[in-house]
Specification:
Elements lengths: L9 H26 L8 H15 L8 H9 L12 H18 L7 E4 L8 E4 L33 E2 L3 H20 L5 H10 L5 E5 L2 E5 L2 H12 L15 E7 L2 H16 L4 E5 L5 H6 L2 E4 L5 H7 L4 E9 L2 E8 L8 E6 L7 E10 L6 E7 L2 H10 L3 H6 L13 E10 L2 E2 L3 E7 L1
Parallel strand pairs: 4-7, 4-8, 8-13
Antiparallel strand pairs: 1-2, 2-3, 5-6, 9-10, 10-11, 12-13, 12-14, 14-15, 14-16
Length: 436
């Protein structure tokens, strides 16, 4: 390894400073091309993250490259936020690493300079792949003025490519290494929630979220008024004349408040973690989309995609009509098909239920590696608490004694229970876990 630094005499000192200045300009120009490339287009958070880390590495401000500081300065988190419960920086760093790799495989394949973000670190390294120095370009990005404190790359390199840093930067690098050692000892590992979501959040691109909705049947005002008045009376029989053209069907027009709360929780979580999601009803999603990208399926009984996918799994919903106005719904277990362990009675007209159950399933597609996430309750109360289970780390942490080694890379199902008081579901409780 060669370090490019300050020489012995005045002439060499001036030349070394000029080289450092040129090298910083080269890095900034290279960064501008990366940020404008297809690999980083449409992902503002990744652009901000990469520019922030490169700029502070070039100025030697390594204190600004700590997880908590990045969370505050780049992602707007409050000062002193808990990194153990908020993995936004770690998740976004993983995505930046993937996008950098994609850039150097595609549009940046011939670049002699590579920017790398080592795993477990937020300090970028500048690696020269050949002897050519990229000339600076003006006007390609804002705030590309080179700093005068640290030189992070040398002017020349061997054909094999090595990492060159100045003597001054070498001192800073030692500080960084020591800080990383301390950080690894003090910083908690990723939470169970981080590990659960990583396969869905890490790949670039958006996910499609399929939401449950049912048709709405509209009646003319005179019939609505008739039904309102009839509901106040004591008669067991209604005499109502209804013409065929007096009923209008509005597709996918009704959604429960509880389902909406689950959707809102997941949408907020994905936004905070820099993941774009397209929320659509089942009728708006094609089979091709389901097969070729990450998918989140919310709800079950008004979500045919969820019902179809869960049909082959160990745990699934089943129901039967006991009487005209009485339906029983339960979660069946293929290992104990004759046992109804988690069951809910549904009667009409609606009456309060004391408990609801839900299934959360995460599946890997062996054909292309995509991830399918299904979150559904027997009733909408169960669906609501799946939103809490999937966005708040304490609930998945409570299931850690039930999780086998390597579960984060396996298919898995979680059975949840929520106690319902009136129309308010309590927090989710994990009853069973199956991983394979």
């Amino acid at each position: 390894m060669r370090s490019v630094g300050v020489k012995g005499d005045e002439h060499d000192t001036k030349r070394g400073e000029q080289t450092a200045e040129e090298n910083r300009t080269v890095v900034q120009s290279h960064l501008a091309r990366i940020l404008l490339s297809p690999s980083f287009q449409g992902t503002k958070r990744c652009q901000e993250f990469l520019k922030y880390t490169v700029d502070h590495a070039l100025t030697g401000d390594f204190d600004a490259l700590k997880e908590r500081v990045i969370g505050v300065n780049v992602f707007g988190r409050p000062a002193g936020f808990e990194t153990s419960g908020d993995s936004i920086v770690r998740v976004k760093a993983n995505e930046v690493r993937k996008r950098l790799a994609q850039y150097y495989q595609e549009s940046g394949a011939e670049e002699p300079l590579h920017i790398k973000l080592p795993a477990g670190s937020y300090v970028p390294l500048f690696v020269w792949q050949g002897e050519k120095v990229i000339p600076p370009e003006s006007g390609t990005a804002e705030n590309t003025t080179p700093s005068a404190a640290v030189e992070s790359a040398g002017k020349a390199a061997t054909p094999r490519g090595r990492i060159f840093i100045t003597a001054w930067a070498a001192v800073g690098l030692c500080v960084v290494v020591a800080s990383l050692i301390i950080w690894r000892q003090l910083s908690p590992p990723p939470t169970e929630l981080d590990r659960f979501w990583a396969p869905l959040l890490a790949p670039p691109g958006s996910v499609v979220a399929c939401i449950p909705a049912r048709d709405d049947y509209r009646l003319p005002p005179r019939l609505n008024q008739f039904l309102r008045e009839a509901a106040k009376g004591d008669s067991d029989r209604l005499d109502m004349q209804l013409q065929q053209n007096e009923v209008a069907v509005v597709p996918d027009a009704v959604m429960s408040l509880q389902n909406f709360r689950a959707i809102l929780s997941l949408a907020s979580f994905l936004t905070e973690h820099g993941k774009q999601a397209q929320f659509r009803t089942a009728s708006e999603i094609s089979a091709d989309e389901i097969r070729h990208q990450g998918v989140i399926l919310i709800g079950a009984y008004y979500n045919p995609w969820a019902m179809q996918i869960n049909q082959e799994l160990r745990y699934r919903f089943e129901s039967t009509n006991q009487a005209e106005n009485h339906e029983v719904t339960w979660i069946s277990d293929r290992k104990a098909p004759n046992v109804r362990k988690w069951e809910v009675n549904k009667t009409w007209p609606y009456h309060p239920q004391p408990v609801d159950y839900a299934i959360v399933s995460r599946l890997f597609d062996s054909a292309n590696g995509r991830v399918i996430l299904s979150a559904a309750g027997m009733n909408s109360f169960g669906t609501q608490v799946t939103g809490e289970f999937l966005t708040e780390p304490q609930y998945l942490k409570s299931a850690s004694p039930l999780l086998p080694k390597g579960w984060e890379h396996q298919n898995c199902q979680f059975i949840l229970e929520t106690k319902v008081v009136g129309t308010t579901p309590g927090p989710p409780k994990v009853l069973a876990v199956h991983c394979w």
